[in-house]
Design goal:
It contains two helices and five strands. It is an alpha+beta fold and 105 residues long. The protein has a five-stranded antiparallel sheet, covered by helices on one side.
Length: 105
């Protein structure tokens, strides 16, 4: 297997995902929608205890996000979302996204 070394920081990470939501304890009742999600890694079931979910349209973004999460010491689980036809990464990682800040006037 070839090895590629990239430098990814938190600002790169927030450019990888399309949507971010709370997974556990958020306003959405994700366990009630469990039939739309399929684990893509070796897990047999969905871990409902992760705090955050990041939707990523392209698998290349999943690869980069996984590498970044491992490098900053965060576990994750990758799911496929049948409703959005995209990948979802579950993790406890939560970085402030500059897109959440109001624009300077």
């Amino acid at each position: 297997m070839a090895q590629v070394v990239l430098e990814i920081d938190d600002q790169d990470f927030w450019r990888l995902y399309e949507t971010r939501m709370f997974w556990c304890g958020g306003p959405d009742n994700w366990p009630a929608q469990s039939n739309r999600f399929t684990p893509t890694n070796l897990a047999e079931s969905i871990d409902w205890n992760y705090r955050n979910a990041y939707w990523m349209g392209e698998y290349a973004n999943v690869i980069l996000a996984r590498a970044y999460l491992v490098s900053v010491g965060h576990e994750y689980q990758v799911l496929w979302d049948d409703e959005t036809n995209s990948y979802v990464i579950l993790t406890d990682f939560r970085e402030e996204d500059p897109r959440d800040r109001p624009a300077d006037v």
